[in-house]
Amino acid sequence: QVHVVESGGGLVQAGGSLRLSCAASGRTFSSYHTGWSRQAPGKEREFVAAITSSGSRTYYADSVKGRFTISRDNAKNTVYLQMNSLKPEDTAVYYCSTGQRSTTEYDYWGQGTQVTVSS
């Protein structure tokens, strides 16, 4: 069992930056692929970014490519999402998820952290 907790959300002006953190329990987190998704009010949850267990590969949605960076520190059991040049349309609840199968199939999810970008 892996427990996932997101943090780092908040209110920021357009053009600003935030760094989200995803802390996971468990001594085998280094074998887990991890991803970020988001859900805006009235919309379906959408993929944002993902990273392989080793950190050797990363994947991004077109809408965030060039602005967001996903990274991980397996020694700290933490995955990060650095978000730069934020736009009002990035406003959403951001969720971290993790699993051992692939970067598109996850078994454990956090409760989410709210990101609000004001114009």
Please, could you describe this protein's structure?
Helices cover 0% and strands 50% of the residues. The mean pLDDT is 96. The protein contains no helices and 11 strands. The strands form 2 sheets. Strands 2, 4, 5, 6, 9, 10 and 11 form a 7-stranded mixed β-sheet that branches. A hairpin with a 6-residue loop joins β5 and β6 (58-60). With 119 residues, the protein is mainly β.
Helices and strands in order:
Blueprint: E1 4-7, E2 10-13, E3 18-24, E4 33-39, E5 46-51, E6 58-60, E7 68-73, E8 78-83, E9 92-99, E10 108-109, E11 113-118
Parallel strand pairs: 2-11
Antiparallel strand pairs: 1-3, 3-8, 4-5, 4-9, 5-6, 7-8, 9-10, 9-11
Estimate the helix proportion, in percent.
under 10%
Summed up, the helix count is: 0
- Sketch the topology as an H/E string, one letter per element: EEEEEEEEEEE
Radius of gyration: 13 Å
Determine the strand fraction and express it as a percent band: over 45%
Keywords:
single chain; 119 residues; mainly beta; 7-stranded mixed sheet; 4-stranded antiparallel sheet; 11 strands; globular
Summarize the structure.
With 119 residues, the protein is mainly beta. The chain has strands at 4-7, 10-13, 18-24, 33-39, 46-51, 58-60, 68-73, 78-83, 92-99, 108-109, 113-118.
